[in-house]
UniProtKB/TrEMBL annotation:
It catalyses: a 5'-end 2'-deoxyribose-2'-deoxyribonucleotide-DNA = (2E,4S)-4-hydroxypenten-2-al-5-phosphate + a 5'-end 5'-phospho-2'-deoxyribonucleoside-DNA + H(+); DNA(n) + a 2'-deoxyribonucleoside 5'-triphosphate = DNA(n+1) + diphosphate; 2'-deoxyribonucleotide-(2'-deoxyribose 5'-phosphate)-2'-deoxyribonucleotide-DNA = a 3'-end 2'-deoxyribonucleotide-(2,3-dehydro-2,3-deoxyribose 5'-phosphate)-DNA + a 5'-end 5'-phospho-2'-deoxyribonucleoside-DNA + H(+). Gene3D superfamilies: 5' to 3' exonuclease, C-terminal subdomain, Beta Polymerase, domain 2, DNA polymerase beta, N-terminal domain-like, DNA polymerase, thumb domain, Metal-dependent hydrolases. One of its GO terms (molecular function) is class I DNA-(apurinic or apyrimidinic site) endonuclease activity. The keyword Nucleotide-binding does not apply. Residues 341-421 form the Polymerase/histidinol phosphatase N-terminal domain. Coiled coil: none annotated. This is DNA polymerase beta. It comes from Rubripirellula amarantea. Residues 1-317 form the DNA-directed DNA polymerase X domain. GO terms for cellular component: cytosol. Its main location: cytoplasm. Its EC number is 2.7.7.7, 4.2.99.18.
Length: 576
DNA sequence: GCCGTTTTCGGCCCGACTGTTTTCAGTCG
């Protein structure tokens, strides 16, 4: 079992324990343990099998969780988890996904009314049975009926890029409200997570009612879920939720810090405050003994009074940021303006919609100094992938065009060469050797067993003509999981053979993810952030990759294409 | 279940809102 699978098992333990009404701190301990393992930069199985190492030394993992990990690694399952699965019926878990229903009420509904399906629940509501239960009422009953529709729509997380579109449109709308003097987005959107589950908006307003009224008039609002003196929650089309919170000017920094999260980051922040005799809430930082307020206007103040520098939102996951902050070693994260080139894009030769010249002109407009044309190789027949002959023809064209762009843009002869199902590269080595830039990637045989697909990937890394691995895990957010691949082995091989790894900036990919990027950085593997553009517009996704890179803690020098091509070329030669 | 330059027991971040209550539990973030 790999770390992700172990973490998932522990998370499920936490979820199920919640339904059993367990001690909340025990539940959190399982969540913390799962997080620690998911973010651990090395394999749990490897640590366990090394007599020199002790898994319990990792914060959040104690004696009990070590035993659980051992059982999971050795047997692939966990008896306590199996028992809990039997003890907590699936329908209870389904019911708890309905907004407004949680573990306690879901359990009660099943026990008191014998609900065994969401259909039963709907019927019970329609027959007015729910409103009579203690702790329930008419409003809860009708909220459940509304919620059933939402639960069935499975309001999933949306891509960061989609959240960004919504947020920008809503910002435009809210700016028309004169009562609002300050506004900022918070939550996982501000932290730049690859997907976003809801939007959090923070405002300072001279008239709170007016600000809330204004939000409620946004055209896509389908429902107001709740509204109080300081907060309004609405549902946008497709069940997506937005919370807006109104605060005072001198609370804005504290509120922004608070609502940006993550939850784990906030818990850690407040623990540090508490140790200093301070208390942090969304209104400010206060002395515990006499309740004096000592900060709150800006986020910077909030961090400073507990002895920390301001921490970039992308790093606020309670991973390494507190240690880095305390040691004064917070990185200056990479920015979009640092990017000099784009090393993955397609043209009309395969499945792109624009020509080499179109892409070159668009790259110049975007301030780039070099691009690599990397069309598909022949195995990707659906995209009319290139064989050696057609590829060499394309390169001949590039040779001709290069002169036109001399001094403005360097156009590199590249290829995105498939790693074949049986292993090996899709194009002959003598051909690949003529390229300036060779990406290797997997498009077929994605469901192969772990050992096989890992071996294929490592085979490509060992090929001296390959420069970088493109979209190394193959994941498509919300659509397709990553390949079953041993990234520890893949990264070790990349390190050994001096290969680059791609951060594919396509908002549905963002592959490598933040944790893999952090690991690659720790190993010293150079990252290239590429758009994988299939059209001119596709070049504009670079920013999404930058945010992901920031979440991985990358600085400009960790990203190879922040250098100009001559320097990058030298780096390639040294690496190989 | 984890953790400990006060502790191996007794803490564990903090508050808004709702609906059902009549002082609070449940849910959410």
């Amino acid at each position: 079992m790999d770390n992700a699978q172990i973490a998932k098992a522990l998370e499920e333990m936490a979820e199920l324990l919640e339904f059993r009404g367990e001690n909340p701190f025990r539940i959190r301990a399982y969540q913390n343990g799962a997080k620690a393992i998911r973010e651990l930069g090395e394999s749990v199985a490897a640590v366990l099998s090394d007599p020199e190492r002790d898994l319990a030394k990792i914060p959040g993992i104690g004696k009990t969780l070590v035993e659980k990990c051992q059982t999971l690694v050795e047997t692939g399952s966990l008896p306590q988890l199996e028992e809990l699965r039997k003890a907590v019926p699936a329908v209870v878990i389904q019911m708890a996904r309905i907004p407004g229903l949680g573990a306690k009420k879901a359990v009660k509904l099943r026990e008191e009314l014998g609900i065994e399906s969401l259909g039963d629940l709907r019927k019970a509501c329609q027959e007015d049975q729910v409103a009579g239960l203690k702790g329930f009422g008419k409003k809860t009953q009708s909220a459940i009926l509304d919620g059933l529709a939402i639960a069935e729509e499975a309001a999933s997380r949306i891509y960061w890029s989609q959240a960004d579109g919504l947020a920008r449109a809503i910002s435009d709308h809210m700016q028309k409200c004169k009562a609002i003097t300050k506004m900022e987005w918070a939550g996982s959107y501000r932290r730049g997570r690859d997907t976003v589950g809801d939007l959090d908006l923070l405002v300072v307003a001279s008239d709170r009612e007016a600000a809330m009224d204004h939000l409620a008039t946004y055209p896509d609002v389908s429902q107001t879920i709740g509204r109080g003196e300081t907060k309004i929650s609405i549902r946008l089309d497709k069940a997506f939720q937005l919370d807006m919170r109104c605060v005072e000017e001198d609370e804005f920094g504290a509120a922004l810090q608070y609502f940006t999260g993550s939850q784990a980051h906030n818990i850690h922040t407040r623990k540090i405050a508490k140790e200093k005799g301070l208390k942090i809430n969304e209104y400010g930082v206060f002395k515990i003994d006499d309740d004096t307020k000592i900060a709150g206007t800006t986020e910077k103040d909030v961090y400073e009074v507990i002895g920390l520098p301001w921490i970039p939102p992308e790093l606020r996951e309670d991973r390494l940021e507190f240690k880095l902050a305390q040691d004064g070693k917070l990185p200056t994260l990479v920015e979009l303006k640092d990017i000099r080139g784009d090393l993955h894009m397609h043209t009309t030769a395969t499945d792109g919609t624009h020509t080499i010249r179109d892409m070159a002109d668009a790259a110049i407009e975007r301030g780039l100094s070099y691009i690599a044309i990397t069309d598909h190789s022949k195995r990707v027949s659906m995209a009319m992938g290139l064989d050696e002959k057609r590829l060499r023809q394309q390169w001949a064209v590039i040779d001709e065009i290069r002169n036109e762009y001399q001094g403005r843009l360097t156009i590199l002869k590249g290829i995105e060469c498939d790693i074949l199902e049986a292993g090996g590269m899709d194009l002959a080595d003598d051909c690949l050797a003529e390229a300036d830039w060779v990406l290797a990637s997997i498009h077929y045989g994605q469901k192969q067993p772990r050992d096989q697909i890992t071996e294929r990937m490592i085979g490509a890394i060992e090929n001296p003509n390959v420069t970088a691995i493109a979209h190394p895990t193959g994941r498509l957010l919300n659509r397709r999981p990553a390949y079953e691949i041993d990234m520890d082995q893949v990264m070790a091989a990349a390190k050994q053979h001096g290969k680059f790894m791609e951060l594919n900036a396509n908002p549905a990919r963002l592959d490598l993810n933040d944790l893999h990027l952090a690991k690659a950085k720790a190993l010293g593997i150079p990252i290239v952030i590429n758009t994988d553009a299939h059209s001119i517009d596709g070049l504009d996704v670079m920013g999404y990759g930058i945010i992901q890179a920031r979440r991985g803690g990358l600085v400009a020098k960790d990203v190879a294409n922040t250098q100009d091509w001559p320097e990058l070329k030298k780096l390639i030669d040294v690496q190989h």
